Amino acid sequence: MLGSPAADVAAFGVLGLLIGSFLNVVIHRVPKMLEAEWAANCAELAGQEPPAAPAFNLMRPASRCPSCQHQIRWYENIPVLSYLSLRGKCANCGASIGVRYPAVEMITAGFFALAAMHHGLTPAGLAWVTLASLLIAQFFIDFDTQLLPDDLNYLILWGGLVASALQLTRVPIGSAVWGAVFGYLSLWTVYQVHHLLTGKQGMGHGDFKLLAGLGAWFGAEYLVALVLLSSVVGSVIGGSLLVVGRIANRDIPIPFGPFLAGAGLLAMAIGPGRLESLVPFAFPFASLAR
């Protein structure tokens, strides 16, 4: 602790702003990095030289304005404050900067502060803010690209199992393991039945892995509640998109990953114990899982 619970919350909140700024880079660049990796793999399989490309990763090149390629200076990249001081515009060309950038920073800061309130500056608090960061990244990556990168899903899955084994969560290791198993198999079964009946793919395999990861963090007894929460999140997102006219065409697919990631974040915000009291019927196997 830094001296008081309020100081812990403030410190974690500021750290969350900084991590949120980095998450904006992750959300933008990871899909592009995957595309470059796939292109290189395809070229290798075809016996061709991989396409030449400049270094592109989470660190290089430096962030630039997409409109004029102006390199963003450090004082133009201070979370939230720079956006406000620049009035949401590029300092060089005046092009509009999306409001989502400060929104991601503030959302991340909020979950960091929430973790500090529940756990303080402890290893458990660091574990939960790591999960929150990964879920925020997966939420927006899947929303933008309909991709759930395996690298991030595996970090969520293995992180949940390790956190349980180290007793950084209140989930026994047995419940974490079975949560991962049943989380994966439940959506895999839904996928197979839907594909058998319709001949179409109803969801991506990344959704199976993401629910497996959530099962590892929250335990097998939480799986039903997480699925119910994902339907609530989906209703809110779908309704919002209808209002703003983003999904006027019903044939446009809506990714399921943001609903699952949002359910995980919502379960974190509600917290263990309170969720059981809100939706007790969603925990039919709670006694068995413990």
What descriptors fit this protein?
about 290 residues, about 0% strand, globular
Structural write-up:
The protein has helices spanning 5-45, 81-85, 100-119, 123-145, 150-165, 173-198, 205-218, 223-244, 257-270, 274-278, 286-289. The two termini are 31 Å apart. The protein has 290 residues and is mostly helical. The protein contains eleven helices and no strands. Helix content is 66%, strand content 0%.
Short structural description:
The chain is about 65% helix and about 0% strand. It is an all-alpha fold and about 290 residues long.
N-to-C SSE string, H for helix and E for strand:
HHHHHHHHHHH
**Number of distinct helices:** 11
Quaternary structure type: single chain
Please tell me what the overall shape is: globular
Residue stretches low in confidence (pLDDT < 50, at least 5 long) are: none
The average pLDDT score comes to 87
The tally of structural domains comes to 2
Work out the radius of gyration. 20 Å
Termini gap: 31 Å
Instruction: Describe the largest sheet.
Output: none
| Number of separate strands | 0
- Beta fraction: under 5%
Class per helix and strand makeup: mainly alpha
Bin the helical content.
55-70%
